[in-house]
Amino acid sequence: MKTEINLGQDAQQIQIFKALADPIRLQILQYIKQTDHPVACGEVGRAVNISKTSGSYHFKLLEAAGLITAEKIAREKYVTINWSTFETYVTNFTQRL
């Protein structure tokens, strides 16, 4: 008996869990979660003590996984947690952040 596999959803889950498997990205998510508004990437980077280059890399992975949303305003990028991704793929995870 063969089991049908939804490769699209599996690929999304793999990308999400890879993004969550890094301690720096978890710190980024924890910092964003404690704010009640979109927060500038530079502020998050300073809070978790990472360089702009490193921050750019981590934000890109988190955004590609659908864990954060980003909006560019003027010269700064603002990020928020994408709650719907957490609710769909990793229910109850954010309570542990």
From TrEMBL:
It comes from the Bacteria. GO terms for molecular function: DNA binding; DNA-binding transcription factor activity. PROSITE patterns: HTH_ARSR_2. The keyword Transcription applies. Keywords: DNA-binding, Transcription, Transcription regulation. Residues 5-97 form the HTH arsR-type domain. This is Transcriptional regulator [Lactobacillus heilongjiangensis]. It comes from Lactiplantibacillus mudanjiangensis.
